[in-house]
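DinB family protein
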Amino acid sequence: MTADTRIDPPYTGGELAQAEGFLDYLRATVVMKARGLSEEDAHKPVLPSELMTVAGLLSHLRWVEAYWFRTVLCGEPDRAPYSKERPDGEFEDAARIPTARLVDEYEAECANSRAVTARMGLEETRPFRNGGDINARWVVLHMIEETARHAGHLDIIRELLDGVTGE
């Protein structure tokens, strides 16, 4: 595995800085777990689900970032490759995409997400499901949960692939 270049979340600061610090730490963990693998290993299933690969999780997380920050908070159309007919489209498509491209797209999407919260802060709301509202705070907290869960999956997958363990 490549060197650990993650930055610890700040121990003090405002709510946005600390929440984004944790989210960015997790985002960097995802990238760290993907680096140093061969293309074959990054696309190789080692769990019962054929879709749960390093590449598949990178693709999934990229599109999750896009959905919550671009679509929900900014009102852009949802361009994700999944649908009712292809509910796992982002995982399926990842099988044909080089890992370096998946990492680049994920990192670019994370940069966009940071720009959205920098503009909005945490309090700003948008209309959401069933006539309710959602604020950026909920989205950031949800992304911490989502990214942490999949970083755990990546820990397991990476250890099964090549024995590499770590934080």
